[in-house]
Each structure stands twice: as C-alpha cells, then as structure tokens.
Write a structure and sequence with these properties.
It is built from 15 helices and 20 strands. The protein has helices spanning about 30-35, 55-60, 75-85, 90-110, 140-155, 220-230, 260-265, 290-305, 315-325, 325-335, 390-410, 435-450, 455-475, 480-500, 520-525, and strands at about 15-25, 45, 65, 115, 120, 125, 135, 160-165, 165-175, 175-185, 190-200, 235, 240-245, 265-270, 310, 345-350, 355, 370, 375, 530.
Length: about 550
C-alpha cells in the first residue's frame, strides 16, 4: 500500500536521528512515558511548542483515584461505567481504577504540592462521583503543578533529549510498522527523520476544531490525523465532550471554570434565578456532564439566551479565594467577582473522548506505535468521560506503555539505521496564509454551528459538505505549520462528523435531536475508521 504523507519535501536532504523511543507531546501522558522509558532506553521527547503549552498545564481539575478509606476501586469503577453510558471497555476501566491509586501516590513523591489539611490529603467532589476522590495540587492549578514536576523529573540528568518547537508532520512506516516520525524545526525550517524502534503519541486532543473551546491553540488533532494517515485505527470520534461551565465570551481559548467549584456547592441558575438541575438528576449540578449540558441547552433555548449563570455568592469568600485562586484572579481580571457576581457560563468544546484506538497496553493497531492521553481511545471513557479521569488515564496507561516497551524493543533485532524511506517529491506551492487562516475559521464556525452539543442529520450533512469542499479546495501544503494544522483539523473534524452521522441515537456526549433516545439494540458498539488502500483526503470524494 502506498500511504499518503502530508510532508512537503525541500531541496535539502533531511537530517537523521536515531533513538530507541520517540515520545511526541509533552502533556501528562508524554512526560510520564518519557520519564519511565528513559530509565532504560535512549529517548527523545518532541513538542511542537514549549513543554508547558499543553492542555495538561491548563487543567484546573485534579486527579481522580480511590485514595481514601471511604472509597474503593469498585466504587470508582461503577462511577466510571455509569458516566460512560454503556460504551466503556470494562477491562480498561478495571485497570484504570486498580492501578490508579499507586500511580497517583508515585506522582505525589515527585510533586509534593498536593493539597493537604493537617497532613491528610484533601479530596474534593466533582460531577458523577459518588464520593469525594479528586486530589488537587495548588488548589485549582493541578495541571501546571503536575506538569512542572514531571518536566523537572524528565530533565534531571538530561536522560531525555527534549526537542521543543519541532512540529511532527508525519509518522514513518516500513513493512507495516511505525519506525519513527518526520519533524519540522520551526526555527530553522529544516526537516529531520527521527528513527525509533517505538513511537509514543501523546499529542492531546483537537479542541481547536471548534470556535469555542477550552483547549489551547496547539490542540489541533495532529496525533489522530497522522496516525490515521499511517494506517492506524481511530474510533469513537463522534464523542466530543462539552464542559458545562466555560466563561461566556468570544475569547479563544475560553476560560474554563472548574467543576470542583460546583463540587464545593456552587449552583447553576437560569435567567429566572432558578436552580434548574434540581429534579433533573439526583446529584443536581454534579450530574454527569452530558446530562448537565443537555439541560443547559434546553434552558438556553427556552430563554432565547446563549448563556446561563454559575452562582457561588452564597459560599464563603475566603474559602473561594483560597481554594480557587486561579479562577478567582482570572475572573477578577475579566471584570467579575466570584464572591458577589453571578458568572455567565455556557457549554464549550473541552475533551475528545475518542481517538487512536489502543489495547490495554497502549498499543495501537499499527505495530511500533503507542498512544496515551487524550489522543488515545483506550476505552476507559466510553461515550462520556467521568470528571478528572483524564489525568489519571495518562498516568496509568503511559506506565503500562513503558512496561510493554521493554518487551517490544528487545524483540526487535533489525536496525532502523539500515532502512530507506521514500518521501514526497520537490517542495510545493502551498496555500496563501490568508487562505489558511480563513479555512481554519470556516472549519471552526462550521463545527460550532453544526456539530455542537446537539446534532441532527441536516446540520451534519451540511458540515460534511462544507468540510470536504474546503479540504478539496486546498493545494498540497508547503513546509508550514499553519497548513499542516489545518489539514490535521480537517481530517479529525470530518471523522467526527462521519461518526456523528452514523450513530443514529443519543448516547453520552453525542446528542441527536432526530434520534433522541439511547438505542442499545443497534448502537451499543464502537465506530472505528481506518484508511482504505489508496484513499486520500480523509475519505472525501473529489468533485
């Protein structure tokens, strides 16, 4: 099979580097994998930006794990399965909840800033959890504290070669397996062929497919798109989780107001000042995210408004400032007082539940390629992720990848140094910068308008026609990261739409107004996509 490469070649011969393991991405999944693999193997971590420019670093929520006497892996298992709306992979969830506590305790050894009171770990409540089990570090700054600690551990002794500002354009394949990746140095414009026995994708999600998202600018679905081009399966793409409480604004990214604030007792109010979640779900504001979002959409439609309110004015102001310093200060900078103002909020794109399909060891369907974190579809989230299970997933499954690397690498005797790879021909003309910018805006507007919280066939067909038309109108890209990101976003967005069209039911984070009920008889299964022989353009037929 001749596989499609997005890569645009240059007149200069690409450089060559050789490793045992390449890790692509610097969130919790990538950092955990790099730290673990470097204990035995020669490792490179490649990030298209700087280490801290990740969704992990922005995470206000904590890490869910059964760490208290009143909790247990069995309770955590049940909560996760319920939130997943019938599509969780039980074996993967069982691994997550049983191995999770040990992984979190190991993390605490290198990140001592987890919140404690009198020496005891402080555990918070979040949506759809039956008991308090969310561990936080630095109040609502868990992501930055954890990412900083892992980055420091990775760089100690320089055991990992860290390559920042290198855009990984494509995975390299030979003989039906992954043998590394091609990267573009964003400072010099030079390409490098990075060969490795094993490659770990930890590139995060694709929130930038939407105009309203909590995700940073770098979350453009690169890992999912390059894995698809390389022949790996991607699945559950229709399940995009929308967070109930994004600060209502036209900024990008949208400021996320952590679910832990509702865990401490904040209310959701409609424009009549009523707590509308009471009576909708036994846990009211702390119901599963899909349940809360669905009711929020209904309330906004009834009121003819684009936002509702988050109200914490009845809570102790000192507690709010101490427990949520990031939220409090950011809102103050934006003109709101968390202690005295009702905060306008609306659901926004937040998390990709689907992704590159893996087994319980993080192995994708392409030998030599692993995936961890938001880019991966391990099966633990089903149709709707349980709050604060995302950081835990990165910890647990990156640890399992490291353990499997020892088996995989020692079983491969051939040397990648001997391989030759045929890459695309001479450099191409590419697209004008204004065409790429407008294309990205069109994609985001289309996804927000037609593939948002509630979908229907007419809107989805309109989105597919628009996105395929845009894709087919583009010239082959130059060596330009903006062009690469647009192609990757289109690849991912088109498969979100295709999955949403195929799934003719409402389940978890996928809501269809024309198929409003769960349909276990026909749809209690997963939808996977894999590149067909000779297929290009993400399966869009050319006119």
């Amino acid at each position: 099979m001749t596989r499609p490469y997005l890569l645009a070649a240059t007149d200069e011969k690409p450089g060559r580097r050789f490793y045992d393991v390449i890790v692509i991405g610097s969130g919790i999944g990538g950092l955990t994998a790099a730290v673990g693999a470097a204990r035995r193997w020669k490792v490179a971590l490649i990030s298209k930006s700087i280490l801290r420019d990740t969704t992990t670093f922005l995470a206000q929520g904590g890490i869910a794990a059964a760490l208290s006497e009143q909790d247990s892996p069995a309770l955590h298992f049940d909560d996760t399965m319920r939130a997943g709306a019938g599509l969780c992979r039980e074996e993967a969830v069982d691994i997550l909840v049983h191995e999770g506590p040990a992984r979190v305790r190991e993390l605490m050894e290198i990140c001592p800033k987890f919140d404690r009171a009198g020496g005891d770990l402080v555990l918070a409540s979040e949506g759809a959890h039956s008991v308090p089990r969310i561990a936080h570090a630095g109040g609502d700054a868990t992501g930055s504290e954890v990412a900083s600690a892992l980055a420091q551990a990775m760089q100690t002794g320089s055991r990992v070669q860290v390559l920042e500002n290198e855009f990984v354009v494509d995975l390299l394949t030979n003989g039906g397996r992954c043998i590394g990746a091609v990267s573009l140095n964003l400072r010099t414009g030079a390409f490098t062929m990075n060969f490795a026995t094993a490659t770990v994708l930890a590139t995060g999600g694709c929130g930038q497919a939407y105009s309203l998202t909590t995700n940073p600018k770098v979350a453009t679905g690169d890992g999912m798109a390059m894995a698809y081009r390389a022949g790996a399966s991607i699945g559950d793409m229709e399940f995009v989780q929308f967070h109930p409480t994004g600060l209502y604004s036209d900024e990008s990214p949208i400021f996320l107001i952590t679910e832990a604030l509702r865990g401490e007792g904040a209310y959701l109010l409609n424009h009549a000042g009523e707590r509308f979640m009471v009576g909708v779900h036994p846990q009211a504001e702390l119901g599963p995210r899909d349940v809360v979002v669905k009711e929020m959409v209904r309330q906004m439609q009834e009121a003819g408004q684009e936002f509702l309110f988050l109200d914490a004015t009845h809570l102790d102001c000192g507690m709010l400032r101490e427990r949520f310093p990031t939220v409090y200060e950011t809102l103050r900078e934006k003109g709101y007082d968390l202690c005295s103002d009702r905060i306008p909020v609306a659901p926004v794109s937040h998390y990709m539940v689907g992704g590159v399909v893996t087994d319980i060891w993080g192995r994708t369907t392409l030998p030599g390629l692993y995936a961890s974190g938001e880019v991966a579809n391990t099966g633990v989230h089903g149709a709707n992720r349980l709050a604060s299970n995302s950081l835990l997933e990165g910890l647990v499954f990156s640890d399992r990848i490291v353990r499997d690397l020892d088996r995989y690498i020692t079983s491969k005797e051939e040397l990648v140094r001997r391989l030759t790879i045929d890459l695309p021909g001479p450099a191409r003309k590419g697209n004008l910068p204004e065409e790429i910018a407008e294309g990205r805006r069109l994609l985001q507007r289309t996804m927000n308008a037609n593939v948002g919280t509630v979908r229907n066939e007419e809107d989805l067909m309109t989105a597919l026609e628009t996105l395929c038309g845009l894709l087919n109108s583009l010239k082959a890209p130059r060596a330009d990261p903006d062009e690469y990101e647009l192609y990757n976003l289109l690849t991912v967005a088109i498969h979100i739409v295709k999955g949403a069209l195929l799934r003719q039911e409402s389940r978890g984070s996928h809501l269809r107004s024309d198929f409003p009920m769960v349909d276990d008889a026909d749809w209690k299964h997963h939808i996977n996509f894999r590149l067909k022989n000779g297929e290009e353009n993400a399966g869009c037929s050319k006119s």
